[in-house]
Amino acid sequence: MIRIIDIHISYKEKENIINALRGVSLDINEGDYTALIGPAGSGKSTLLGAIAGVISPDKGDIFLNKYRLNKLSRRKCAFVRAQFYGIIFQFSELINRFTIEENLYFAWYAAHKRKNIEEYKNRLTYLINMLKIDNILSVYPTKLSGGQMQKAAIARALIKDSSIILADEPSGDLDPENIELLKALFLEENSRGKTIFLVTHDMQLAFDAKTIYEFKDGKIHGIVKHD
Description:
Strand order of the largest sheet: 6-7-8-3-9-10
Helix content: 25-40%
Oligomer: single chain
CATH superfamily: P-loop containing nucleotide triphosphate hydrolases
Mean pLDDT: 93
Low-confidence stretches: none
Distance between the termini: 18 Å
Number of strands: 10
Order of helices and strands: EEEHEEHEHHHEHEHEE
CATH architecture: 3-Layer(aba) Sandwich
Number of domains: 1
Largest sheet: 6 strands, mixed
Structural class: alpha/beta
């Protein structure tokens, strides 16, 4: 379970203080599929970064199960993040000197170390089928289109088979056909018990979430959908 309690985050931009988050509280339970929808600059990505433990709030607390993320050391927070999260960032985070399959294998190995290689192969086959990425596995990231790179980054985040998926505008470079593939993947992952937290401006992508919150000006402004 993720519990966010009255978090505030601000930062300085030139001579101005930007209040990115203004007292956000939210519970995300195991198996939830939750989406936050709002315009660019509303603070959605800042909230996801705080949940991931890469941005520390000025005020408030963030709990992941027994861990109080904002009170952990950087090293411990990185350990917890690697253990529980598969994170789809807005930018690919791929390593250019490795092929896509090498990127996927290294991400899996970093999470699982000595686990049976068959588990990796099974997960890879599943993602190949869901995302239609068989034609890019031997390609280097610099040779990919924006949409191909986005799908590779999604696969890299999900290859670990983590219990929680955090997705930050994952459809930004995808065409309508590939957005449908991503929607099907999220629904399948959720049906397998994965917790999904999605931030996006795209209502088409968010539509399948069980709970959708409207987010603007650093706050949750209401519930758009709740099943």
